[in-house]
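ok so heres the complex, two chains, lmk if somethin looks off
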Amino acid sequence: MPDEPTTRKTILIDPVTRIEGHAKITLHLDAHGRVADAQLHVTQFRGFEKFCEGRPFTEMPSLMARICGICPVSHLIASAKACDALMAVRIPRAAEKLRRIFGLAQVLQSHALSFFHLSSPDFILGFDSDPARRHIFGVAAESPEIARNGIRLRQFGQQIIERLGGKRIHPAWVVPGGVSEPLSVANRDAILVALPEMLTIAQLTLEWFKGVTENFREEITSFGNFPTLFLGIVKDDGGLTFYDGKIRIVDAGGYVVATGLDPATYNDFLGEKVEPFTYLKSTYYKPKGYPEGIYRVGPLARLNIADRFGTRRADQEMAEFHEIQRTAVLSSFHYHHARLIEILYCVERMQQLLDDPEILSKHVRAIARPNSEEGVGVAEAPRGTLIHHYKIDDHGSMRWANMIIATGHNGLAMNRSILQVARHFVHAERLEEGMLNRVEAVIRAYDPCLSCSTHADGRLALAIQLVAPDGAVIDELRRK
Amino acid sequence: MIRASTIKTLKIDDRDFSARHDETILDVARQNGIFIPKICDLKGLSPVGACRLCLVEVKGSNRLLPACSTLVEEGMEVTTTTERLQRYRRNILELLFTERNHVCSVCVSNGHCELQTLAQKLDITHVHFRYRYPNLDVDASHDRFSVDHNRCILCSRCVRVCDEIEGAHTWDFMGRGIESLVITDLAEPWGTSETCTGCGKCVHVCPTGALFEKGKSVAEMLKRREFLPYLTQMREEHS
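and the predicted structre for the whole thing:
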């Protein structure tokens, strides 16, 4: 290898902005300045699976929820479900319904955050617009109605979480065996009265987004547009669910590869691969091996695997969504579209659940000791399938934990997406900010929850450097 | 039966009070709504002066005295709050936080914890000493209760209530100084203790989440301590 290694260059995007968590991206260029490889580095190390050892299992929902400040509710639910399995109880029906509403409120507020606060600046102001204005405040100046709607939607989701759980972030309301307090009539009515407004916002936003999608032809074809498997949980009848179901996997053609898989046996069909360049473990579908077993989870995957939503308006939107592509919908750009349909579904489904008189039942908690030494809890978090797996000793103390978080499932796909986008847009001889924003934007489409605890706010400095192997900076772009 | 007592007069924070000769400065302060921080003291248990949070200044004494175990004296002049005392109290509380792993957010006693409440009351927002992060176990071997040494501040309330009220003396201390731990019997798992009656008094007098009922989730461990003075009184009347 005489000359080749000395001519390789690297572009570093650090940190990636407008995502939840901390990450950087490296683009490796070949001798001709073309992008040869791309890597997403998740730069945080958390250690939850280790430091929970020895703790009482009853502490897990609140402890594990600290993984994330954006989607603590999803962790609460998956963790509490794992604890239900440890206690070997069937929780009261009202508790299950309340947890469902709690989870839907979480999906709604998280999706609103992802779409409006983090991604809409790219759609409204443009991928190549001035980065100093390309944020939610820029959106508010350009399209105040859209910004207001986004903030209102997120506020609504957070308020439901507060009404049910006592506070917006890290409520301790979801407990092993159910929930700690029943729903009051006043709180039910307060949520119900706001639903029509949310329905209108969800529909308006969807209509607007479908109208502007045409402007992003180039992004659609290059933003993670490749065949993969898609994975998620569905109900027994194939309907979409966020709370409880069996795992289904479909291929790029839209055909079911596997269905009815018990989430508790995830280890039989999902492998976790550790790469030296990132703290994020990448999962793959074992029967296809690594990395051919690449799959995606989250809104796009859910719409690809589920037969229906089970609510009228969302089902109409789903039918229209599938007209985009007769196979599975493959471009990760369509995560945004899928996310908006899910917001609509959340509102419709909450209405159904709150209209049920049983939701006010006072019987919301099953009391039991640990009766099983192992438990798996699975739920659909906003970003995809979330698995918590615990083992305890005879006294109920944690012996071992393993978690697969939605962003981990998407690890392989995110890396491949970055490579695709970078190959399409990045030209080393003339670096432009807008090219690199697209590399970041493809990551935003997945709405990764990298730290699962914090999110960048779009004002962090972005530094891109062209570095020669000897460390010399050949070119540099810096966002203030 | 009314015991013979002598009345003493004293000043606390420049206010005049009278008290029985067998009362402590803390008793008088408590009866008159004067706040003196304390955490090892609990009405109904013998005072030990262990936590040193209730230290007060007494005129004529060149050292600080614990209000919980200092009896009133005629003509005593007590000051409960000075900048020096506040500084010492904050230091003591900060050191308590550094010694073990007090993580309020995932604690069964969050919102109902005496240590947490005191820290809030004394305006502690940061700890200025290095945390020790000891690697301590949770003993969950008992059928109904657990002890999490990470949250223990060695106040000895559990030791005293078990000895003085229940009469079982299951709890005691092991080790010295920073290595001290509360133990059941001869440092055996709580679940195999032959002396423990399972009465749960230790759990309810514990000021933090160190002792708790199994099955409680975060912030759910409410402790009832009102029973203690009644129990003491009833036993005195029956003896």
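quick notes: The two ends of chain A are 39 Å apart (CA to CA). thats all i got rn
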